[in-house]
Amino acid sequence: MKLGALTMVTLLAAGCQVHKFDRNSVNASIDAGQSYGTGTVPFMVVGDEQPAWLVPDSPDAPQVTVQRSQELVESPDFNFLSFTGYMVTLSLIPYWEEKRYADVYELKWQGESLLESRVEYSIDAYFSVYFPTPLMFLGTVNDEAAEKAVARDYVTDLHKGGVLATIDQQRQEFERANPQTAEEIAAYLTGPGRNSVYRPSAVNRLIELAPEENALAYHEANSNVPGYVDLLPVEHQAWLIGPEGLRGFDLEASIEQGVATDDLLVRMLNAYPAEQDIPVTYEQVAGSWQSVRKITSGYYTGLTDEHRAVLKQAGIPEGLVDRMTNDSPSKALLAAARTGKLRDADGNIRIPTKEELLEQLVRKDNQGKYMSPYTSDDVLAEWVDLAINANIGSTAGSTIGAAAGAYAAEKALEQVPFVGSFIGGMVGSEIGETVGRQSAISASGGWEKIRGTSDRSFDDLQSMVRYLKAKYGSTGNFADAMEATGQIYPELADALAQAY
Question: What superkingdom does the record give (predicted)?
Answer without folding.
Answer: Bacteria
